[in-house]
Description:
Blueprint: E1 2-5, H1 11-23, E2 27-32, E3 37-42, H2 50-54, E4 59-63, E5 83-85, E6 88-90, E7 96-100, H3 107-120, E8 124-126, H4 144-156, E9 161-164, H5 171-177, E10 180-183, H6 191-198, E11 204-207, H7 214-226, E12 232-236, H8 254-261, E13 266-268, H9 270-274, H10 280-289, E14 294-298, H11 316-333
Parallel strand pairs: 7-8, 7-14, 8-9, 9-10, 10-11, 11-12, 12-13
Antiparallel strand pairs: 1-3, 1-4, 2-3, 5-6
Helix pairs in contact: 3-4, 3-11, 6-7, 10-11
This protein binds phosphoenolpyruvate and manganese (II) ion.
Amino acid sequence: xxxxxxxxxxxxxxxxxxxxxxxxxxxxxxxxxxxxxxxxxxxxxxxxxxxxxxxxxxxxxxxxxxxxxxxxxxxxxxxxxxxxxxxxxxxxxxxxxxxxxxxxxxxxxxxxxxxxxxxxxxxxxxxxxxxxxxxxxxxxxxxxxxxxxxxxxxxxxxxxxxxxxxxxxxxxxxxxxxxxxxxxxxxxxxxxxxxxxxxxxxxxxxxxxxxxxxxxxxxxxxxxxxxxxxxxxxxxxxxxxxxxxxxxxxxxxxxxxxxxxxxxxxxxxxxxxxxxxxxxxxxxxxxxxxxxxxxxxxxxxxxxxxxxxxxxxxxxxxxxxxxxxxxxxxxxxxxxxxx
Length: 339
Ligand code: PEP
Ligand code: MN
């Protein structure tokens, strides 16, 4: 349920409203918009009568949110949310250009790739230290050593860093080294992981599960928001389908679909969606044209030597050309890209 407060609601009234919500056994989530303050009332809605809330001074309207996701919904927040990673804004007209190798492989290797993507205009560096691999015999990532390398290289190139966290027990460690958590497709419904991340105040890139609906994705975001962490960026990365000429099937309509239903930023990962460097640039550009708040692209200077996902990596010059095109598109779409 959502309480829309009167435009002239005073601070003591707002404090009182928050206190009453707690006393009635609910959790308040306050969103201060430009025009009005809105308070989300989260908990079992069968309990009290809506009238209990409409009688509290300062409350103008009580709205029941019919969607199963509440804090993630447009009803809760009309304006686009802006998530800030380091100095980089994502959402509300600001694009994230996340690039880097699939995995952190070595200090020198990551340093080289980071130099290329930074020069091309990427604003967030990616690299997995904990890798979810289909085979237990495949490279599983460098773990903590990889996190430290990512931090060092990110600092050297003045880029915030994002990296995957797979297990609730890894959250404190990844929180220490990274600027943004990545929850991968395989863990989108790892609810204990989402709850743990919800307790932090670090941004999270939440990727759509390979067989998850848009509603499932928004419900997973709700887990993080319900914990009090408002910094959620969604990521469309393709879903499983009968089509076998691409790695997954990119659901481009998820971008405007999510935007209609949620205030959260959504970016697109054309690398994992298509698995094909010949398709990635066009799908990245289509994402920006569709209104996405950025893209997430894997780049490697020597794909044939990559420890994971080499075949889908763009070469640095291909990425630089893509960035040139995206800058032109950004101007048309009236959005900007923080350095
Ligand atoms: C990745 O980003 O390297 C990754 C494993 O992505 P996804 O979880 O979307 O498969
Ligand atoms: Mn990958």
